[in-house]
Specification:
alpha+beta; endopeptidase fold (from Nostoc punctiforme); 7 helices
Length: about 325
């Protein structure tokens, strides 16, 4: 017996030590279901050793497979808070203490709410003042950058193409790779926080409405598209502000209707604020045209009065705001 005790005791000490450190049992909720932007849920995390108490020293690790779907906050050693964002979908959150891991299936249900009845799902609209401000800044900066650093990814060289390109790029996450595609024209700024293209809630890559009806999640592929003509932008993607420049903010649009230009009767410009605009000319003398900057005062002196951004000009349709900002 003494011989057994002599050999057993050295073996028992490591066993005792490791059995108090490493878990053998873990209990977590296996599935959580949320509404988009719904209330966060607090989750109890129970890991226990062979002796039934919480493991000593080891920290609970959390792996969130889709941070754009849900956010996770630790509330202590035994609690987590899981907060749904705007996107719909399914993912997994892994909770563990070495060598034990447990999976939580997370489901965020789609939301078809359109409380303002503008044809866009509420989850795709930028609800915070900061996101709207950041989007406006990015929209204008991206459009202006095409004067000196035209992006190879901008293919549709006309006034509507400039707006669609700047709109789409402003919704993206702006990392180093993205900035390289713009030629490193300007310093990295903020991103919007609600979501990032191409993962736009309920819409995906189909950012622009092309049909007139209320929002229906079953007809997104028919009602929205990656492309929208200037007419479709005007008819279904913006709200009117009127013709007075005092009503406009940075990132708003100006629209003109010139029926004499049969192939392209609608024209749009991007308002930069402080009386300045940026626009693409459309084709000139067989070429693709160019991006230009101007002022409302300069446009008001244009030889062709149909381009005057004034109350008296029936060809000037006024200032408009993107529906995701309204």
């Amino acid at each position: 017996m003494k011989k057994i005790a002599k050999w057993a005791f050295p073996l028992f000490l490591p066993f005792l030590f490791f059995s108090m450190i490493f878990p053998v049992k873990g209990q977590v909720t296996e599935r959580l279901v949320f509404a988009p932007q719904g209330e966060p849920k607090t989750l109890k995390v129970e890991f226990s050793t062979l002796w039934g108490f919480h493991p000593l020293f080891l920290e609970t690790k959390v792996i969130n497979e889709d941070p754009e779907l849900v956010e996770i906050k630790k509330l202590g050693k035994k609690e987590l808070q899981i907060n749904p964002r705007r996107l719909e979908g399914e993912s997994s959150v892994w909770i563990g203490q070495f060598p034990l891991w447990r999976e939580i299936k997370v489901v965020v249900l789609p939301s078809a709410k359109d409380d303002d009845r503008d044809g866009f799902p509420d989850v795709a609209e930028l609800g915070s003042e900061n996101d709207r401000k950041v989007f406006r800044e990015l929209l204008v900066d991206i459009a202006r950058s095409q004067i000196t650093h035209p992006s190879p990814f901008w293919k549709e060289k006309d006034c509507g193409g400039l707006l669609r390109f700047a709109y789409r790029e402003a919704l993206k996450r702006h990392d180093e790779t993205w900035f390289e595609t713009l030629g490193g024209a300007w310093i990295k700024g903020q991103d919007i926080t609600a979501y990032h293209y191409p993962r736009v809630p309920m819409l995906g890559v189909n950012l622009f409405r092309i049909k007139a009806r209320g929002f229906d999640p079953t007809t997104v592929e028919e009602d929205f598209s990656v492309f929208a003509s200037v007419y479709h932008l005007l008819a279904f993607n913006v709200v009117p502000l009127g013709k007075r420049k005092e009503l406009a903010e940075k990132g708003d649009l100006l629209f003109f209707f010139q029926p004499d230009y049969f192939e392209m009767p609608y024209h749009a410009m991007l308002y930069q604020g402080e009386g300045r605009v940026i626009y693409h000319t459309g084709p000139i003398d067989g070429g693709e045209g160019e991006v230009r900057e101007s002022t409302l005062d300069s446009l008001a002196q244009h030889p062709d009065r149909k381009w005057h951004p004034t109350l008296a000009n029936p060809s000037f349709l006024g200032f408009f705001r993107w529906k995701i900002l309204d």
